């Protein structure tokens, strides 16, 4: 989870705005709007950074992120990620003679012994199993052995809090938040504070 937040009187302008307006509620309302606008602006760069960091397509990372907007009681905007260990299928997987080639974390490599098709080379047939890559369960080389889906090791909630994704959220979020807070304080106080 990534979070932009304003706690109580964390910014000096909150106290001054509340005094001028005669109500802390008006100040909190301005901060809530500022947080939600900053959150809206930071979300696209964050899911693009997450896509680059994980090797997923931006559309996949966009669907995996969920925003929790700031409210009057909670002055924080949160970005939550969902999902477990993602299947190799989503990283441009393709079968080769040596195994399955895929690019988790943006780096292509071959997962030796994995497969996506059935039959003998060179006449392999597409299996109707959703385009996933599979790993045989037993070490012995025989037909009919059980298999499981091969995973990539990419877990979106874990990747959100490290690397460029976290840095992007924090740097863009902080600059946008300062800009939006100033704007909303100016609007609420009719230009008295800026």
Spatial shape: rod-shaped
- Give the number of domains: 2
Proportion of residues in β-strands: 15-25%
**In which range does the helix fraction lie?**
40-55%
- Supply the helix-strand structural class: alpha+beta
By DSSP, the count of extended strands is: 12
Oligomer: single chain
Strand order of the largest sheet: 1-3-2
Mean pLDDT across residues: 84
Cα(first) to Cα(last) distance is 31 Å
Number of helical segments with 4 or more residues: 5
Please describe the biggest sheet, giving its number of strands, its sense, and whether it closes into a barrel. 3 strands, antiparallel
Stretches where pLDDT falls below 50 for ≥5 residues? none
| Gyration radius, rounded | 24 Å
Order of helices and strands: EHHHEEEEEEEEEEEHH
Description:
There is one protein chain. The chain has 194 residues and is an alpha+beta fold. 41% of the residues lie in helices and 22% in strands. It has two domains: 2-83 and 155-188, no CATH class; 87-153, no CATH class. Strand 5 (94-95) and strand 6 form a beta hairpin. Helix 2 (24-54) crosses helix 3 (58-64) and helix 2 packs antiparallel against helix 5. The longest helix has 31 residues, at 24-54. The chain starts with a strand and ends in a 6-residue tail after the last helix.
Entry summary:
The chain is an alpha+beta fold and 194 residues long. Helix content is 41%, strand content 22%.
